[in-house]
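Exercise 7b. C-alpha cells:
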C-alpha cells in the first residue's frame, strides 16, 4: 500500500491548482476462486491488480483519472492534471454545480477481523471440501453439479483535501453450490445459492457448513422433480431469508438509491417510484416492515470503516414501520437533495472506477415473532425458499419472482413439495400484505450487484428473517 507521502503531496498540488476539492484513492485487490464441476476440479483462478484513482471538483464539475502505473515518484500529479482538464471540459456543459454535503476530516484504520486467512488455506483442503459436497449432490437425477469457494482481499488508502487520510483492509470469503436435476416428462429442478459470502476469514465457510447445505440441496432437487404442480389461487406465503434478501435488494435497495432520483442512472438502471416529496408519507409496506441501510453490521459485504468519500460507516433508516423515510446517498447526492449529511454510500468497484451511490447492507429488520409462531398462524399456504428467475420494471415498482422450492403448509405444519410457483406484484401492495416478520434474522452477501456506465460490480449485504404475506395471488408454471 502507498504509505508514503505521494498521495498527500499530489492532493496538496491539486488544491493549490485551484480545485475546490480533491482526493486520491489507492486500491489493491486480489481474489482466488476454487471450483469443482461434476467431480472434477474446474479451475483455480487468481486475480490481482492495483492502481490509483483521483477526483477533483473544479468549477462545480467532477474530473476523474486513474492508472495502474504507480511506480514513479510523481505519478499521481499527472493524473490530477488529467482530472482537472476533464473537469474543465465538463464545466462547459454542466447544468447544475456539484455541492458536497459537509464532512469532518477522518483519520484511522479499519481491518476485517478474521481467525483464519482464507488465502492461506491449503488448496488441497479446499478441493477436498468441494469434492465432498459434489459427491453429496450426485443424486440419481442430477445432471450438472458445481461447488466453489472464493476469497477476496481489498486494501485501500484514501487521502482528501478535507484532511481525511484513512486506510482499510477488507477480507471476504464464502461458498457457492449449484445442482440441476432432470427426468423425462417434467421440467428440470435447480437448487443453488451463490450468496453465501461474508466479510470474514475461512471460519465462515466452516460455520456455513458446505456439506450440510449440499445434503439439503440434494434432497430438495429430487423432491421438486417428483412433486405435483401447485394449485393456482390466492394464498398465504411464508418466505425464507435468502428469498427476501433478494426482494429487499431489488424492491427497496435499488429504488432508494438517491442518484436514481437525480436521474444519474436513467439510461442503464432506471429511476424510482420513491421521490423526495414522498419521504415521511409514502406507505411502502405494512407496520411490520422496517428496512435499514447499515454499513456497521459485523460481517456484511456492505460493511467498512469509511466509504470512498471518506464518510464514516453509518446506519440510515429507509422504511420505518411501513413508511418511506430515507435514501442511500453520497456527499454529492446528499448535497443535491438538501440532506444534512451523506449516508456513506459512495463506493467504487476498484481504483479505475468513479465512486457512485451503491447499497451497503440493506436489510429487513427482524420482528418479535418466532418462525414457529408465523408458521402456526397459517391454515393453508406455501413456504417459499430461495428465488429462481425474477424480473423488475425500471422503477422497481412492479416485479415477478419464481421460487426454487415451494412446500405446502397445512394447519401450521410444512408438508409436501409442489412445483411451478411464481408471483407478481406492485412493491407497496406486496409489502403491504406482510402481517408478520420473524426474529430469525440472517445476513446474506451478494457478490455482483451491477450498476453504472461503465459497469461496476459491487459486493453488497442483505439481512432478512422469515416473513408472512397474506392473500397473495400465485401463478403456476410447469
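Sequence design result:
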Amino acid at each position: 500500500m502507498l504509505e508514503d507521502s505521494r498521495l498527500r503531496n499530489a492532493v496538496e498540488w491539486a488544491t493549490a491548482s485551484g480545485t475546490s476539492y480533491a482526493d486520491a484513492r489507492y486500491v489493491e485487490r486480489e481474489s482466488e476462486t476454487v471450483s469443482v464441476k461434476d467431480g472434477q476440479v474446474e479451475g483455480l483462478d487468481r486475480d490481482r491488480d492495483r492502481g490509483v484513482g483521483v477526483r477533483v471538483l473544479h468549477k462545480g464539475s467532477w474530473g476523474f483519472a486513474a492508472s495502474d502505473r504507480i511506480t514513479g515518484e510523481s505519478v499521481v500529479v499527472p493524473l490530477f492534471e488529467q482530472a482537472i482538464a476533464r473537469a474543465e471540459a465538463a464545466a462547459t456543459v454542466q447544468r447544475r454545480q456539484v455541492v458536497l454535503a459537509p464532512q469532518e476530516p477522518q483519520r484511522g484504520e479499519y481491518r476485517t477481523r478474521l481467525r483464519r486467512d482464507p488465502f492461506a488455506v491449503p488448496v488441497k483442503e479446499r478441493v477436498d471440501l468441494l469434492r465432498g459436497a459434489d459427491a453429496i449432490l450426485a443424486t440419481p437425477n442430477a445432471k450438472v453439479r458445481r461447488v466453489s469457494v472464493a476469497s477476496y482481499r481489498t486494501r485501500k488508502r484514501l487521502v482528501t483535501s478535507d484532511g481525511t487520510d484513512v486506510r482499510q483492509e477488507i477480507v471476504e470469503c464464502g461458498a457457492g453450490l449449484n445442482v440441476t436435476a432432470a427426468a423425462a416428462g417434467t421440467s428440470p429442478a435447480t437448487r443453488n445459492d451463490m450468496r453465501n459470502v461474508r466479510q470474514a476469514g475461512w471460519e465462515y465457510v466452516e460455520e456455513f457448513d458446505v456439506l450440510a447445505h449440499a445434503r439439503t440441496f440434494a434432497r430438495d432437487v429430487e423432491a421438486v422433480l417428483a412433486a405435483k404442480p401447485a394449485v393456482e389461487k390466492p394464498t398465504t406465503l411464508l418466505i425464507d431469508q435468502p428469498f427476501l434478501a433478494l426482494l429487499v435488494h431489488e424492491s427497496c435497495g435499488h429504488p432508494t438509491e438517491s442518484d436514481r432520483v437525480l436521474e444519474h442512472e436513467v439510461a442503464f438502471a432506471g429511476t424510482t417510484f420513491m421521490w423526495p416529496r414522498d419521504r415521511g408519507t409514502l406507505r411502502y409496506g405494512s407496520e411490520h416492515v422496517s428496512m435499514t441501510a447499515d454499513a456497521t453490521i459485523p460481517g456484511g459485504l456492505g460493511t467498512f470503516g469509511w466509504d470512498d468519500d471518506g464518510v464514516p460507516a453509518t446506519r440510515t433508516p429507509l422504511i420505518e414501520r411501513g413508511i418511506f423515510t430515507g435514501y442511500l446517498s453520497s456527499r454529492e447526492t446528499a448535497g443535491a437533495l438538501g440532506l444534512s449529511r451523506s449516508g456513506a454510500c459512495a463506493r467504487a468497484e476498484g481504483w479505475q472506477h468513479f465512486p457512485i451511490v451503491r447499497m451497503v447492507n440493506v436489510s429487513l429488520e427482524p420482528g418479535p415473532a418466532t418462525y414457529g409462531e408465523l408458521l402456526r398462524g397459517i391454515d393453508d399456504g406455501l413456504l417459499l425458499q430461495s428465488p429462481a428467475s425474477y424480473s423488475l420494471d425500471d422503477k422497481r415498482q412492479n416485479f415477478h419472482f419464481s421460487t426454487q422450492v415451494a412446500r405446502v403448509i397445512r394447519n401450521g405444519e410444512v408438508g409436501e413439495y409442489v412445483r411451478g410457483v411464481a408471483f407478481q406484484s406492485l412493491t407497496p401492495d406486496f409489502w403491504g400484505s406482510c402481517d408478520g416478520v420473524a426474529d430469525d434474522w440472517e445476513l446474506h452477501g451478494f457478490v455482483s450487484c451491477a450498476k453504472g456506465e461503465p459497469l461496476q460490480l459491487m459486493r453488497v449485504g442483505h439481512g432478512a428473517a422469515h416473513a408472512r404475506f397474506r392473500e397473495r395471488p400465485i401463478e403456476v408454471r410447469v
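Instructor comment: The CA atoms of residues 66 and 235 lie 53 Å apart. The two ends are 54 Å apart (CA to CA).
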